[in-house]
Every structure is written in C-alpha cells, then in structure tokens.
Write a structure and sequence with these properties.
It contains nine helices and eight strands. The longest helix is centred in the last third of the chain and has 17 residues, at 216-232. By secondary structure, it is an alpha/beta fold. It binds zinc ion. Zinc ion is lined by residues 162, 164-165, 168, 195-196, 199.
C-alpha cells in the first residue's frame, strides 16, 4: 500500500499520461511531443533531458493492480530506433515484472546499443510527488473533495479571529481566501496583525495571503520577512504576542508536505 494509491486510482489512463507530462516537467525534462489520445494508444510522449531524447511509455494499471510485463511493452528497442531517440522511459502506476526488468537490464548492458532503458514505477514516482506543485496535483485530484486539512481533533481546534473585527475566524474554510497576515507600520513602529482583507487598511505592507501560508514553505518565507522587519525596525509591544498566536494556530491547518509544494 502506498499513500498515493488513491490519488493514482482516481486518474484514468489519459489523465495518467498528462500527469506524466507534468511530472517530467517538474523533474526538469523538456516535453517535445505531447501524447495524443486515441483508442490505439496514440503516439508516445517524447521528452528531452540533458541533450538526450526519450520516448515515454505510460501504463496505468493501478485499478487492476497488475504489474507491467513483457507483453505490455513489446519491441521497446524497435520503438527507440524508429523514433530516433536515445532512450526509453516507462512511466507506470504499478510495479514492473521481473521479466521486463531483466529485459531493461539486458538492453542497457548490451554493448551493441547505446540506448538507455529506464522506468519509473509507482514507488519511485511517489518519492518525487512532494516536489510537485500543489496546484498541479490538485488538477489530478489530490485532496479530492478536501479543500483544507485540520491537523487537530475538532474539539481542540482554536479559532484565529480577525484582530480588527474580532468576529471572523480567518482559519474557517469560508474565510481563508479573504484573509491575510501582515506586519505594518503605524506610529513609527511595526505591528503584527491578521484578519479579513476587508477589515485591514489597504496600504499595509508586507502581507501574505492565508491560503498561501498554509503551505509550509510559504509560511517559512513569510516568517523570514517578519524576522527581517523585527531586526531592522522598532516593533510594537504586542508584536510577539500576536506573532506567536498566529504561528501556533496556523499549524492547525497547514498542509502536510507530502501534498506538494506551492511554487
Ligand atoms: Zn475582520
């Protein structure tokens, strides 16, 4: 069992091919030829990495759970030659059979050919998913139906009320998209504040969207910015108090890092 099995299972074979495109782009590959959708499998995806060209064969057997075997990948050498590329990449949502693995090994070690035969199975793909962009993963159904996470039991949850109106909980899923956190200059000192966009004066700076700082790396960037202000400028007496409340309570909704990154 793999934590992403349900995520993979939610995709149909066509979506799996387009997921492969986004996955390989994230890994630094240039896409030369997009897969085409068709009953006979269409054409293979073609990519380039560090000057070498590859054809990519996507097999999406997660629903049946079957391994990819020799009969699923026929004539791989011919396909590489025919497409005039340097190698072959299998992109599989299950694992590969021993027979297919041996075939790859033999082709790779045969001195007659200068081609590379590689594969990414579901375990290898899963290792790299945390590096992918969260929005991309959402497009393919990660967090399906789950817009925000709650990292504490419901009864332990503490709201983070807007410091201006005092009423709206900015961590309530209904308010997250219309709320921000900020440090702003007032009377020659910096104040830490969070709240509804509509309650906060427009001219404040810097600020960050709550929807964004729910991603750990964005929260860290935000805290770096705040640190800079703290080191460079005079801050208000209650600065640390609100900063600490904010940083503690936002953790209740921070996304687990295995759901991809913001950027
Ligand atoms: Zn408010």
């Amino acid at each position: 069992m793999n934590i992403y099995d349900d995520f993979y299972r939610g995709m149909d074979p066509n979506e799996w091919e387009f997921f492969a495109v986004d996955f390989l782009k994230t890994a630094g590959y240039t896409i030369l030829d997009l897969p085409t959708i068709g009953p006979d499998g269409g054409k293979d995806l073609k990519v380039e990495y560090e000057g070498k060209k590859y054809i990519v064969s996507c097999k999406h057997f997660i629903r049946s759970g079957k391994t990819v075997n020799l009969s699923n990948e026929e004539n791989i050498l011919d396909r590489v030659v025919q497409h005039e590329v340097d190698g072959f990449i299998g992109f599989y949502s299950t694992q590969i059979s021993n027979g297919l693995k041996e075939r790859f090994d033999k082709l790779n070690s045969n001195p007659k050919y200068n081609y590379t035969f590689e594969y990414l199975d579901k375990y290898l793909i899963s290792q790299y998913i945390p590096c992918m962009n969260f929005q991309t993963l959402q497009k393919f159904g990660i967090c399906n139906g789950l817009t925000y996470v709650l990292n504490v039991p419901k009864n332990d949850y503490k709201p983070l009320n807007c410091l201006f109106c005092g009423k709206k909980d900015i961590l309530n899923p209904l308010n997250i998209n219309s709320s921000i956190v900020t440090v702003y200059n007032y009377n020659n000192e910096y104040h830490y504040a969070y709240g509804c966009k509509s309650c906060i004066p427009i001219s404040i700076f810097p600020w960050a969207d709550i929807a964004q700082v729910l991603h750990l790396e964005c929260l860290m960037d935000w805290n770096d910015e705040v640190d800079f202000i703290k080191n460079e400028y005079k801050i208000s007496e209650d600065f640390y108090k609100y900063e600490s409340i904010f940083n503690n309570r936002i953790l209740q909704r921070i996304y687990p890092s295995n759901l991809g990154t913001w950027i």
